[in-house]
Design a protein that fits this description.
Elements: H1 3-10, H2 12-32, E1 36-41, H3 42-52, E2 57-62, H4 76-84, E3 87-90, H5 97-103, E4 109-112, H6 113-116, H7 131-148, H8 153-180, E5 185-188, H9 194-199, E6 203-204, H10 208-215, H11 222-233, E7 240-243, H12 249-260, E8 265-268, H13 278-293
Parallel strand pairs: 1-2, 1-3, 3-4, 5-6, 5-7, 7-8
Helix pairs in contact: 3-7, 3-8, 4-5, 7-8, 8-13, 11-12
Pfam family, one: ZnuA
GO molecular function: metal ion binding
Signal peptide: 1-26
């Protein structure tokens, strides 16, 4: 059983508590008279909260670092929250299907991050690692909230602008790495940090069959695993980019191989680490990648 699956089973009781919390928070939000925002994960929720400031209330359906947005199934309470919110912010692209299904056909405002991406030619769904898409989402959130609460529109716009300044710093870190160490080869256990690697000019040599199998929680073919291991043992790459939220025996073995080969392991995740906001999290990711490849 994969680590992510086991943790979801262990966390069932916590989900009940979270659902009750959503009810209480929702009642408070309605009483405040402020626009209500519900995000599929705390990644988009943190971005929305940064832009909302004191002028709107924001809730996230998934905030548990061990949860898997790909396979989350909403409770009745969560579905109601997504349906009734003034604004829903979600990833899209098949990443958080529970949110897409909940808002299908609704006549209220939504922000679909995947749909907002500037580069429509790239179909990787992990767009929260793409600072261009995140900037576009920030603008859409500010615009939607400004329509919902016109008196606070200037505040939403100003906070979005300040947030995008922080994004520019992350982009600069990745761009510097691309200039200093172009086409540095790495392996990923899953194509999670795809956009960060692209911005950093990094060459991802992971066999596609391997990444696809891990992402779909199936076992890669033995030949594919062997080819991936050989990239590490033969030091044909400079680092292993490791998704800590989708682990199994195969990925843990790759991590051990990388470490025994003296290769750095860059840990990445799909939800915010405890105590970090979006800018801190992605700044840390870009800096960790830079440190590993230098």
């Amino acid at each position: 059983m994969k680590t992510s699956t086991a943790k979801r089973l262990v966390g069932a009781a916590a989900g009940v508590v979270a659902a009750l919390s959503l009810v209480a928070c929702g009642d408070d939000a309605k009483a405040s008279g402020k626009p209500t925002v519900v995000a599929s994960t705390n990644v988009w929720g943190d971005i929305a909260a940064t832009i909302a400031g004191p002028d709107a209330t924001v809730e996230s359906i998934i905030s548990d670092p061990s949860a898997d947005p790909h396979s989350h199934e909403t409770s009745a309470v969560e579905s109601a929250k997504l349906r009734d919110a003034d604004l829903v912010v979600y990833n899209g692209g098949g990443y958080d299907e529970f949110a897409e299904k909940a808002v299908a056909g609704r006549d209220k405002r939504t922000v679909d991050a995947f749909e907002a991406r500037p580069d429509k030619s790239d179909s990787n769904e992990h767009v929260f690692y793409d600072m261009g898409t995140v900037a576009a989402v920030a603008d859409r959130i500010a615009g939607s909230l400004g329509e919902l609460a016109p008196a606070a529109a200037s505040g939403f716009t100003e906070r979005a602008a300040a947030f995008k300044t922080g994004l520019a710093g992350i982009t600069a870190t990745a761009g510097k790495l691309a200039a200093e160490h172009p086409k540095t080869p790495v392996v990923q256990t899953e194509p999670l940090a795809h956009y960060l690697l692209r911005a950093a000019g990094v060459e991802d040599r992971t066999p596609h069959e391997f990444q696809e199998a891990i992402e779909q929680e199936t076992d890669p073919a033995p030949a594919t695993v062997a080819a991936t291991r050989e990239l590490l043992t033969g030091k044909q790459v400079r680092a292993l980019v490791y998704n800590v939220q989708t682990q199994d025996k195969i990925t843990k073995d790759l991590r051990a191989v990388a470490q025994s080969s003296g290769l750095p392991v860059v840990e990445v995740s799909e939800t915010l680490p405890a105590g970090a906001d979006f800018l801190q999290w992605q700044t840390s990711n870009a800096e960790a990648l830079s440190a590993a490849l230098r």
